[in-house]
Design a protein that fits this description.
By secondary structure, the protein is of the alpha+beta class. It is 57% helix and 11% strand. The protein contains eight helices and eight strands; from the N terminus they run ααααβαββαββαβββα. The longest helix has 51 residues. It is elongated.
Length: 382
């Protein structure tokens, strides 16, 4: 596969081409001018040393005789000027041809020199948390480019070890943090008597919030470290299922879903849709609505609710930021997780406040990673 060249690399190639062709052309012009000047001087010097035929002497004692040409004029000086002029004309044409050849050769040589740089750039662009095992492995002489590639490979080794250590830490933290909370919840439910019901409910509420917070932090950490593996996910089925379960007595949820299959992690994509819908339901008012649309590779969730100032849109995706308080207070990580999961899947997130209150959140999936036609989606599901 041919690596994609960046504008910066193209600029460096143009500079190298200009340098190579300029030096080559300058050397060629100096050589041609020097040769022409030396040949012209040598030719005139040799012509000047040629013997000249004597003319008829005047009669002695007589009047000064009028000089009369004794023959046709000497053609040699004119021939010398013609030869020198032709030589300069040919030198000018040759210099122009050499300029064109030097640009072409300089462009090819610059591309050859920059080929290892393109290889390094292509490898860096392909890297993510799921393919940190890839290396440049540049072969060739031990020069500056080989040293750069080896240094990049060594950095990837350290980065891969760091990511693996973080993944192990997340897995261990997930187990170590969830187990005490589960034990605590069981102790509250079983150990406390019924006459302390209010205290029991409060402890269970905080226990549940702690579990939700830990789950949210772990999902956020997983999304920010990229995808471990990607496969076809029927996003329309996921959205339809979540929309059916999200309706409450106070907020109505409607969904208009078209077939869409995207490449990604099914758990993370399910969490993305869940957080969007839960956020739209939680930050709403009694009798409000939530409209979910999945069309042309764009997932849109629009809700009614309190007014969102445009200058506060940036705070929506910041961790632990809440614009409004609700009866069921969240962890403040819902939309942060949405943004991280969308980024891991190459999708774009856009938030737009509604004029009459509420918010419209849109997730645009990349065309290369999505199948939007009903026939292709059905074929992938089979």
């Amino acid at each position: 596969m041919t690596p994609v060249r960046s504008p910066a690399a193209a600029t460096v190639r143009v500079r190298l081409t200009l340098i190579y062709s300029g030096l080559f052309l300058l050397t060629s012009v100096v050589l041609l001018v020097t040769v022409n000047v030396l040949v012209s001087q040598a030719l005139r010097s040799h012509i000047a040393r040629l013997p000249v035929a004597p003319g008829a002497p005047p009669a002695p004692g007589g009047p000064v005789a009028r000089l009369v040409p004794q023959g046709p004029p000497d053609p040699i000086p004119g021939l010398v000027e013609d030869v020198v002029g032709y030589q300069w004309e040919m030198a000018t044409l040759l210099a122009g041809a050499l300029a064109l050849v030097s640009v072409i050769v300089g462009w090819l040589v610059a591309g050859r020199v920059l080929r290892p740089v393109h290889r390094i750039t292509a490898t860096a662009r392909r890297l993510s948390a799921s393919n940190l095992h890839e290396r440049i492995a540049l072969t060739g002489p031990k020069d500056e480019l080989k040293e750069l590639a080896d240094t990049f490979d060594a950095m990837l080794d350290r980065l891969e070890r760091s990511v693996e250590a973080q993944r192990r830490f997340i897995a261990n933290a997930s187990h170590e943090l969830r187990t005490p909370l589960a034990v605590q919840r069981a102790a509250i439910e079983i150990g406390l008597p019924e006459d302390v019901g209010e205290i029991r409910d409060t402890l269970l509420l905080h226990n549940r919030r702690s579990e939700n917070l830990i789950d949210a932090l772990l999902v956020l950490a997983q999304a920010e470290h990229g995808l471990d593996g990607a496969g076809p996910v029927a996003l329309d089925e996921v959205t339809r299922l979540i929309a059916a379960e999200a309706g409450t007595g106070e907020v109505s949820v409607t969904a208009h879903v078209e077939p869409l299959v995207v490449d990604g992690d099914p758990v993370l994509l399910t969490r993305l849709v869940t957080n969007l819908v839960d956020n739209a339901v939680r930050y709403n008012h009694p009798g409000g609505t939530v409209a979910i649309t999945l069309s042309r590779g764009v997932l849109t969730v629009r809700n009614t609710g309190p007014e969102v100032p445009p200058e506060r849109l940036g705070d929506l995706f910041a961790p632990f930021r809440r614009l409004h308080t609700t009866r069921e207070q969240g962890s403040g990580l819902g939309l942060s997780i949405v943004a991280s999961i969308a980024k891991a899947h190459g999708a774009a997130v856009r938030a737009t406040p509604n004029p009459d209150g509420g918010l419209e959140l849109s997730i645009s999936f990349p065309p290369g990673g999505a199948v939007t036609t009903a026939g292709e989606a059905a074929g992938l599901r089979r």
